[in-house]
Amino acid sequence: MKNIQQGFNFALSIDCVVFGFDGTALKILLIERNEDPFKDWWALPGNRVNVDESVDQSASRILKELTGLSDVYMEQFYTFGELKRHPQGRVVSVAYYAMLRLSGEKPLKPLTTFARNAQWVNVNQVPELAFDHQYILEKGLEKIKRRVRHLPLVFELLPEKFTLTQVQNVYELILNKKLDKRNFRKKILSFKVLKELDEKQRGVSFRAATLYKFDKRKYNKLYGKEISF
Amino acid sequence: MKNIQQGFNFALSIDCVVFGFDGTALKILLIERNEDPFKDWWALPGNRVNVDESVDQSASRILKELTGLSDVYMEQFYTFGELKRHPQGRVVSVAYYAMLRLSGEKPLKPLTTFARNAQWVNVNQVPELAFDHQYILEKGLEKIKRRVRHLPLVFELLPEKFTLTQVQNVYELILNKKLDKRNFRKKILSFKVLKELDEKQRGVSFRAATLYKFDKRKYNKLYGKEISF
DNA sequence: ATATAACGTGTATTTTTTACACTAAGTAAT
DNA sequence: ATTACTTAGTGTAAAAAATACACGTTATAT
């Protein structure tokens, strides 16, 4: 029982800022807490890290338990270690952002009882949140605004096949500004990582757009890890 | 004694990647450990976080204890939470990078006994390090390579008054590539945050260069927080 | 057939980035 | 004082990237 030694008296938690795109709006995932502290409050999905799992593993597990979602793109972005952030003691929280394609078929089912409910809410219609989660959310948003310019994160938010207009919409929502259509297309295509498909959108009123796929292999080959969108 | 509850069995530590510039080379600070585990090994300056201090406070305290240095520019960059990274139990480490002007006058005096010695070593002549510190160092280096392009970090490494050639040298060392002198000057001056002084270098053989100061007020006013060096 | 709404495209202008080499100024040695 | 040496300091032309801007095309719905 090594951990009984002095100094082993912190709790570690994970909090996730989970972004989703439903074709129209940028959403984040919130849970409704079913336990104290902050019972009945909305909060970022999060929980304690177990002592026998790595922090990255823990993040995946926690997201899965609270939402039923697995294989989600996640990345650590900051650790929140202020003194009074948790009323039950010294809890330091490692925050992750996550991104996923939001298709109607994926129901959100918390696999644990401490969250009674999980729900997508529009990024700019977030209610008051438990703990310092408001702050963590803001930092997460700032972070992806920057990261989205250097990493092909937006494709995590889009379905496998997407139109260029959808890509542009996601960028506009994240960066929170309008982009010029022609210039945007010129630029995104200039990276040569989108594969034009022999296929059009289906089920839309009005003219259907061409579908594209993100070519991950080509991206890795061309850019290693970084780029400038 | 809230922290006796289940879950409060992590230790938290801070590790610092401290960069210094001595006018010629980019250095990082290492300590020689005087205690187990890894007694006699070189390591990044770091130690346990106390339960009654914030993570940021802890980082400053620890750096001060190990080196005698205070008021150093520090920023958190990643949290290392793998399972087996510490032989004595579950220790999760929050890593910071730090930057400071390395002038001869500042002697390094560890104020604690667990480090027997603190020393600046050239970034590309680092010996084998304790724990996962090699890895943390690499990540720290990657991080500042990116951050230095968006934040005026280099001025933390330089003396208050510096020449443009010195600025260029620091950028070249961090980015690890040669820059064109005329283009560099054009660009750095175009930001309008360097104030040309009525003063020249002293004590150099050969022609003395004009000294400049970084105008922090102007930087904040013009750019808020970000820029693209 | 017609109205509708989003699709998809090109060019000219401005701005930014890159490439490139010599003279000026101060120090040190003779 | 002359000379040799070393770093400081400067401009321009070409290429590349970013920006501004508008209309004919196409599939759908009525």
Counting DSSP H or I runs of 4 or more residues, the number of helices of chain A is 6
What is the level-2 CATH architecture name of the largest domain in chain A?
Alpha-Beta Complex
Q: CATH class of the largest domain in chain A, please? A: Alpha Beta
CATH topology of the largest domain in chain A: Nucleoside Triphosphate Pyrophosphohydrolase
Specify Rg of chain A, calculated over alpha carbons.
Answer: 19 Å
Average pLDDT metric of chain A: 92
| DSSP strand count of chain A | 9
SS class of chain A = alpha+beta
Q: Considering DSSP H and I runs of 4 or more, what fraction of the residues of chain A is helical?
A: 25-40%
Shape of chain A: elongated
CATH H level, superfamily name of the largest domain in chain A = Nucleoside Triphosphate Pyrophosphohydrolase
Which residues of chain A sit in consecutive blocks of at least 5 with pLDDT less than 50?
A: none
